[in-house]
Specification:
Elements: H1 5-34, H2 43-101
Length: about 100
């Protein structure tokens, strides 16, 4: 009789049970991850989702187009006002100095 037989008997059963549970879990996880998934939704839901995505893209495009037009017009107005202000200033200065020399 071996001195370690009692220890081996105590540990052998739990280790075998734990290894079996881990092996079964590994096999099940591989099966679950590799099996092809079935589509459970109807085609109408998918089409609705695609239409919704397309509407979102169209809305964003319209928004950014409108923002670009707004800022372009705002910048154009700002530039035009600056040019008009400079023209008025130089015209006034010319008039002032022309009157001063007479």
């Amino acid at each position: 009789m071996s001195a370690h037989s009692l220890v081996v008997k105590q540990w052998l059963k739990p280790v075998v049970v734990a290894m079996t549970i881990l092996a079964v879990g590994l096999v099940l996880s591989i099966l679950v991850t590799t099996l092809p998934t079935t589509e459970t939704r109807s085609a109408a839901v998918i089409t609705e989702k695609e239409n919704s995505v397309q509407r979102g893209i169209d809305a964003s495009a319209a928004r950014y187009t409108a923002m670009a037009e707004y800022y372009a017009a705002k910048e154009e107005d700002s530039v035009r006002r600056g040019i008009d202000a400079d023209a008025a200033r130089y015209t006034a200065m010319g008039t002032y100095y022309a009157a001063k020399e007479k």
